[in-house]
Amino acid sequence: MRQRPLKRTRLKKALPALFCAGIAVLLPLLTGCKRETPTVTEPTTAVTTTENAAQTFARQRVEDSIQTALELVKKNPVGGWSSTVNYEYKRDNAAYAELNGEQQALYDEMLPKVKDLTPFTYTAKDRGYAVLDNVLMAASALCRDHPEYENYFDIEEVVEGERTTALRFCYFLPYDATGAAADTKQIKEEIQIFEEECNLIVSAIPKTFSTYDKYRYLAAVISLRTTYDNDSVGGKPSATAYGAIEGGSSICQGYASGFEYLCRKANLWCTQVSGVSQNTAHAWNLVKLESGTYHVDLTWADADGNTPLDPAWQSYFMLTQEEILLDHQIDDSTVATGKNQPQTPAP
Q1: Which residues are paired to 323 by β-bridges?
Q2: Would you give the DSSP letter of residue 319?
Q3: CA dist 269 to 92, 202, 232, 340, Å?
Q4: Residues sharing a CB contact under 8 Å with residue 88, sequence separation 6 or more, in sequence order
């Protein structure tokens, strides 16, 4: 079994379970579109609407990270993981399948509106109080099946007296820590650039890479592009794929979402796992190789300023079930089926 480093102290601060728990989607949906976080960090590059400009800006943002990650993988070969068998990501709408009929109808109603960034509201006056709970269940499932929407979508709770009377769907700029409602055109422009960034990252994967190294490269990109948001000042973006890939600051949910988002873009099987680590709600990933499924915890891999792919970083990459349970508890029945591969020097 691989040697594990001493437990880190980095996460011992009480991380907000609001964002960090992998399955706690309902709580952030109730945080509202307006927050009191004082700072808003905007990308330094101006945004335009043309596709060519979006591609240029995206390349400027991610090119260094891409080249560094590729060099790290090539300079740090690992034997025993040479299989090129790839298990494709398939959108199965698993969360949708768990809903009842009324909730599925609400999900179907919401999906095209959220996709097009159309604001809308559900009120107890028009639909009854019972529908509000179903709206939250449907919205939670929507974000689980379509994690890309969490980059810019939220729900504002309208309260009268001590009772919630409406749920207002609204949209914010992905980099805005305050979560303030924003202009749809501007949001779409920033989303376009972000998608181009992800496409560039994924398209740079060499065809000669093993499946293991494809995952390792994408994980290295995440570690190069974000740091842990110890003081939770990043607002909602810290818990999103955007925050990890572009925002530069993440909590565990952001690390897990960013890695999952890139894996899915690369057509690599990846999902999220939720549980507890260091007595705090936590989220990480599960990936699949020919030898089985393995845990990947980029939050812990990136702790204490670890360099991507160094021994401390690798100690939280491709873990067996036995290894992850040394310092994690899993909320559900998720089990990694893979066995440890021999860490032989690569030729």
Answers
A1: none
A2: E
A3: 12, 14, 30, 19
A4: 267, 268, 269
CB of 20 closer than 8 Å to CB of 281:
yes
Q: For residue range 184-243, list pLDDT tens digits in order.
A: 999 999 999 999 999 999 999 999 999 999 999 999 999 999 999 887 666 778 899 999
Tokens of 199: 């496409």
- CA angle (212, 210, 144) in 5-degree steps: 45
Which residues sit opposite 164 in a β-bridge? Answer: 159
End-to-end CA distance of the chain: 22
Count CB neighbours of 146 within 10 A: 17
Q: Catalogue the E-assigned strands of the chain.
A: 120-123, 153-160, 163-171, 227-228, 249-250, 270-277, 280-289, 292-296, 317-319, 329-330
Residue carrying the six token digits 């009929």: 101
CB half-sphere exposure, 155, CA atoms < 13 A: 28
Per the DSSP assignment, residues forming a β-bridge with 312 are none
- State how far the Cα of 254 lies from the Cα of 239, in Å rounded to an integer: 4
Cβ neighbours, 10 Å, residue 297: 26
Cβ 104 vs Cβ 94: under 8 Å: no
What is the H or E stretch that residue 133 is in? helix 129-145
Could you give the CA distance from residue 50 to residue 53 in angstroms, rounded to a whole number? Answer: 5
CA distance 36 to 52: 36
Q: What is the pTM of this model?
A: 0.82
Q: What is the pLDDT of residues 324-344, one digit of tens each?
A: 999 999 998 899 999 886 554
